[in-house]
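New to this. Help decode the following:
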Amino acid sequence: MICSRRTFIRDTLTAVGALAFYPLASCRADSARPGGFTNFEPAYLSLEREGKLAEREKELWDIYKECRLCPRECEVNRLAGENEICKADDKLKVHSAGPHFGEETPLVGRYGSGTIFFSHCSLRCCFCQNWEIAHRGDGGVISHLTLARAMLSLQKRGCHNINLVTPTHMVPHIVRALRIAVAKGLRLPLVYNTGGYDKLETIKKLDGIVDIYMPDFKFQDGKLTHKYCAEASDYPEVAAAAVKEMHRQVGVLRTDERGIAMRGMILRHLVMPHNLAGTDRFLRWVAKELSPDAYVNIMDQYRPCHKAFDYPEIARPLSREEWRQAVNWAKDSGLTNLDL
């Protein structure tokens, strides 16, 4: 359950000082579960100790001055309050934060995924199910300290990770808040929950910061992303390059003995009516280019939202027959870690 902005501000403002952190004491290696973790430590702690996290933050702010954080490369000066297609200016704007139980099982566990929804989005899909947040920009402006306190509050409440939803256009703000939270005891895995339209340069800056990447891979045909995603005709190539880099950094998903995700990739794919998303091609690509062991969530929840009704071919939910066909493709793809 995502809390309201009022509850979010109330909870984070009361999280004063260094909050007690809940160590992952149960993250011991387990011979019954390959990939179990001993003394898990999130990747960003090592960078902070070495002083490299501060260097990365500076590099990201430099990109922010002539914004090239996403593949749109608008080159507006975000520091001066300018904005372009994502509609985000120099402010850190968040819609909500709270334990979320609707994510994949390895993220949710018993106490939920500590989800933070950022306002605005650079991909701007016409069928967006969170269009009020992504397109309209619902949310409130907060400080970096408040965001850090939100992370710590989620940790104190027992969440298993910090899940950053639509973070691409807010990366410098996130890293600054992360550094504040680390100094106050943050020790949870960091999840980068993105629509897949990520610039390779930005993803490389996140190497050693993000523990779990969770990208969507929406379409295989650039003509369709041009049509449905604000003329992002380069989406298939951009997403493929970004996802490969994410996989290079963190590898296949690994969990502790409780089945809680600690490091790796969770790859999402939304099945569309008429196989417009190219699900069959997507599944073959993952098996060939990443790994047969890649964790892939084949999502069946497409329904027309926002401006989808302007396009007759996507103005209806997924049919049962289309979903069965997608499942068959998934089973025939050679992938061994499918979430159906």
About this structure: The chain is about 35% helix and 15% strand.
